[in-house]
Structures are given as C-alpha cells and as structure tokens.
Amino acid sequence: MILCKCGKVIDSTNKFKDFIRTSSSPSTATFGHTECGFIFNLVDGELPKRYSSKKELKSMAMELAEKNKLDNTSTQKLLLLVDRLKRDGNRSDHNILMEAYRYASS
Fold it and tell me: What pLDDT sits at residue 45?
C-alpha cells in the first residue's frame, strides 16, 4: 500500500504504468497515480512524504478503513492511534497511517 503525495491510497484500480529515466537506467518501468498524475521513482528511493493536518490525516484514515472494510471497533482504534501518533512527533503521513493500520487491524 502506497500513499500518494495528494493524500490518496494507491491500489491496483487507480494506477498506470510508465517509463522514466532513473540513475540506473534511461528507461525504467514504474507507475503513477491516475487521479493526480504523480509518477513514482522507486529506484532512486524517492517516496513522497506528506505532512498533513490532524483533520486531513483522520479523513485519510477513514478512507483507508472504508477501503479495507474495517469494522467499527477497528476503525475507532485506527482513528485513536492516528491521533496519538500525529501528536508524538514529526512523522510522515505514510508512516503514521501504516503503523496505525497495522495495530488496528490485528
């Protein structure tokens, strides 16, 4: 699961294939996000880091919960964990959402 810089979770339904120039090859296969057009360069390790407000992050967490069909208890746990992790420090949205989802879904 990858979080785009626009704040949406990318899955197989909303991505496209592309070829870009990277440090290892002039034509490297990669993918992009169909909704915003952002193309990922995973070869050079350039994942987008986004630092959203608490409100934006909670709406992303709700979208993640709906997409993965979490029950009410797990969704509440996810939102609480997102709130706590956001308060703790300077983490990117992707790190916060993935860690909270891992604990909430277990």
Answer: 76
